Q: What sequence folds into this?
């Protein structure tokens, strides 16, 4: 058994073209998804828009000896990467193999973008 | 006494894929399985000196699996960089049928989560037993590039959890289509090498043959599988006559039809009929039908060109591509004369996907020559020779150029 992160990429401006009813329908679709795949779900998140993002970087570029930004951190308004399609949410699923994870990913509702499936490395004491 | 080197070479050709697939089930690691199988073949060179075993494949599988268990013992304490392959538990015999490791390996190599380039490279490596340099040459890339491509694909299979398994029936039709596309690419690449001295790559054609037969044995009722095997047989039946003793290209019009492989053509013809009965008709069935019309013609002049034009019409309607349009125009040139063929070709000039495609210039040159327009024919054939991929094609175009009256 492994865990997979399903990253949901979306197009933010397109959401403005959706009315309350349509947005409600997408939300309902996510609820149905959760009901169908609840046994495999290990986590989920729905992000606020990228306009609410704040980025924290080291001020001095890459370093091999000091990994954290610390007190000198460069704090800026906006997402880490300016891209057209942005991360809108995610699911964490547990699946025995990629085929099972992809079958779950096919059911993720996303009207404007798509999803990316990434295997999570095992963490902890093993 | 049998020459052990010959016996080992023969077993490599026949048994490599099955031995490797059975070993993968034990190692659950593609690289380690390859290593163990190579060691088993090396061991056979010595062990078979006095007697070749009755079942070489079983001998090699046992040897490779024993190696794998040794490796496992050594590696038990070592930290693994990548997770083990996902392999399903198998119920011990006689509870269930034995697992089809060979087919599982093929579906793993052709998984849609891999790039198309990686799928064909892995298939040739793991099922075809070809070396990295051989595969690199077939696809016009350097050896380090091909080695990196294979390594990356194997890493992804392990890290992302691509399973070593034949897909379940609900997923099978979609996945089988991907496997057939890989086999078709092996066939077309072997039929006309994109680079090098030789026109034909025998090793690739042999592998396309093996893979298509393997699929046919496993999916005897699938019309697309029947269509692809028909295409392989009808294309390959002409292999011996497509080059002259010096490796020069011999065109369809000049091939010695008495040397075409009659048994392959008979098998291919029966399979085409089977594949064409399906609705909707599949692409490989139509391609094979075109090859069958050529195979049935007693001579080039007696070819049923209107039938071939009609089959290209079916292809163009269902699977449109500029290459199909080009082939259709050539067929029109034989069915209705060179001027009609040239008119059909004119519609394709300026098609960006044919820019740099030597066959367009070659077809135009040939039609112009037959239409009695030598000056224009010369220009077109010179262009085609500059764009040709392998020496055999280039030499033929040069000979055609000399033949043009000017």
A:
């Amino acid at each position: 058994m492994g865990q997979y992160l399903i990253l949901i990429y979306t197009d933010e401006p397109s959401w403005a073209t959706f009315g309350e009813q349509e947005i409600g329908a997408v939300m309902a679709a996510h609820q149905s998804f959760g009901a169908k795949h609840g046994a495999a779900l290990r986590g989920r998140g729905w992000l606020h828009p990228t306009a609410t993002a704040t980025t924290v970087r080291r001020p001095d570029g890459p370093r091999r000896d000091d990994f954290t930004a610390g007190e000198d951190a460069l704090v800026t308004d906006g997402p880490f990467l300016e891209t057209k399609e942005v991360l809108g949410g995610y699911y964490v699923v547990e699946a025995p193999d990629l085929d099972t994870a992809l079958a779950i990913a096919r059911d993720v509702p996303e009207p404007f973008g798509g999803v990316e499936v990434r295997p999570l490395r095992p963490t902890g004491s093993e | 006494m049998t020459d052990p080197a010959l016996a080992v070479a023969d077993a490599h050709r026949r048994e490599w894929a099955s031995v490797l697939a059975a070993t993968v089930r034990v190692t659950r690691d593609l690289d380690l399985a390859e290593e163990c199988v190579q060691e088993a073949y090396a061991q056979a060179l010595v062990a078979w000196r006095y007697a070749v075993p009755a079942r070489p494949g079983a001998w090699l599988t046992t040897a490779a699996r024993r190696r794998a268990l040794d490796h496992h013992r050594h590696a038990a304490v070592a930290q693994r960089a990548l997770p083990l392959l996902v392999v399903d538990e198998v119920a011990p015999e006689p509870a269930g049928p034995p697992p089809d490791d060979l087919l599982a390996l093929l579906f793993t190599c052709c998984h849609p989560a891999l790039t198309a380039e990686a799928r064909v490279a892995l298939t040739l490596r793991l099922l075809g037993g070809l070396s990295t340099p051989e595969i690199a040459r077939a696809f016009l890339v350097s050896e380090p590039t091909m080695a990196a491509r294979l390594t990356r694909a194997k890493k992804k299979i392990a890290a992302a959890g691509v399973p070593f398994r034949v897909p379940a029936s609900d997923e099978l039709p979609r996945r089988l289509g991907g496997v057939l596309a890989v086999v078709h690419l092996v066939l077309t690449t072997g039929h006309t090498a994109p680079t090098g001295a030789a026109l034909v790559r025998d090793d690739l054609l042999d592998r396309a043959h093996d893979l298509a037969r393997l699929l046919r044995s496993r999916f005897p009722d699938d019309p697309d599988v029947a269509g692809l095997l028909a295409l392989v047989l009808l294309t390959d039946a002409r292999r011996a006559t497509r080059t002259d003793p010096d490796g020069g290209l011999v065109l369809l019009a000049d091939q010695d039809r008495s040397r075409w492989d009659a048994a392959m053509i008979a098998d291919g013809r029966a399979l085409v009929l089977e594949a064409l009965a399906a609705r909707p008709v599949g692409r490989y069935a139509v391609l094979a039908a075109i090859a069958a019309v050529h195979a049935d013609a007693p001579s080039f002049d007696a070819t049923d060109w209107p039938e071939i034009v009609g089959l290209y019409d079916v292809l163009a309607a269902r699977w449109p591509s500029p290459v199909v349009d080009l082939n259709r125009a050539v067929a029109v040139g034989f069915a209705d004369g060179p001027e009609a063929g040239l008119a059909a070709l004119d519609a394709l000039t300026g098609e960006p996907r044919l820019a740099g495609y030597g066959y367009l210039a070659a077809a135009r040159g040939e039609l112009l020559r037959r239409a009695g327009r030598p000056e224009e024919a010369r220009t077109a054939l010179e262009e085609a020779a500059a764009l040709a991929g392998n020496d055999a094609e280039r030499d033929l175009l040069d000979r055609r150029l000399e033949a043009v009256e000017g």
Remarks:
- Chain A touches chain B at residues 2, 4, 95-99, 101-102, 117, 119, 122 (CB under 8 Å).
